[in-house]
Fold this sequence. Notes:
Its cofactor is Co(2+); Zn(2+). The protein is built from nine helices and 19 strands. By secondary structure, it is of the alpha+beta class.
Amino acid sequence: MNAETQQRILDAVDAGFEAQLATTRDFVAIPSTRGAEGPCQDMIGDLLRERGYEVDDWHINVDDLKDLRGFGPIEHDFSKARSVVGTYRPQTNGGKSLILQGHCDVVPAGPLELWDTPPFSPVIKDGKMFGRGACDMKSGTIGALYALDAIKAAGFKPTARIHFQSVIEEESTGVGALSTLQRGYRADACFIPEPTAGKMVRSQVGVIWFRLRVKGHPTHVAFAGSGANAIMAAYHLVHALQKLEIEWNERAKADRHFKTLNHPINFNPGIIKGGDWASSVPAWCDVDCRIAILPGWSVADHQKEIAACIAAASRNHRFLANNPPEIEWSGFLSEGYELTGAAEPEAAFGKAFNKVYGGAVEDLVFTALTDTRFYGLNHGIPSLCFGASGGEMHGFNEYVDLDSLKKTTKAMALFIAEWCGVEKG
């Protein structure tokens, strides 16, 4: 790809950026929390049809996925769950095929009064767009769509098959991405524009979600000593799991990538529910937890370690010794992933990055996970993850930096043109 072609594509990104931001605002304005992603999928389907893509919009059947590597259990109503894929098929086959993927699900906003502006009424100020999902990762998804638009607006068309995929469940199980693979979508490479602050994810953690279900013995609080407080017993187990977290972080010091980080394994008791009455010793307590594992660590083996930790802590507790808690695996059962065997797509992206940013792209050792794992681990498809800068993901006043978003869109457009090839349209 010559310099003139590159510049025409870059200029087209600039020319379309205001429209890109308008579409991003509309996308962020949809409150697509878990189980409510349908309107976002409708919007993506419409955007793809408007552009002439071949659209596949289907309901996800969990029974088709439950035996696949990386499946995580679904606990909520999944009857309306959908994946949407738009396919571009070239007139001339000259390049390498590509999957472009984003997730449209977002985490809950939390107490609305703690946001400076409403989370689903996106606002642009000080060079940033604020809103739930603005950074993670709706701006990246729309950026990928407008990167394709820029190639067309510059007078070119790709010479390889491209699947543009909008998935759900990235924040909880990953079965949206898994469903596209079960459906048969494959390519020579995958690119996911998660927010990475302009770095390429080299290695990322896996995640295990589990729920502790603790039972107590209720009494009137006036006679609390004769009862067993399920909430306090749950705290006992949480403290034990914090010790397990320390052990796993010691183990992480042997990993060639994660040894560079302090405390890469994070345990989080994220939801706690329990008790029925302030003047009754609580009879029950549920704690939903998340803990990370590293690439190469077995999910099954570490589930056993979690169970052993809980069993040992229970034996040392007056009530739990005879009333052990239950453990439910409640979402992610995900392996970590290291990007390997990706020399060709990385070289193609390196050229695009150098043109936009200058220099070489830096690696990122990521203490969260992305959907890249399914492509690399399940099917040997090299899966790149690179995106814009932002902040407060999963927190209040989430935002994406707009200058970084424009640069990311430019880099994606040039990468698509380099990897897939282009011809005059």
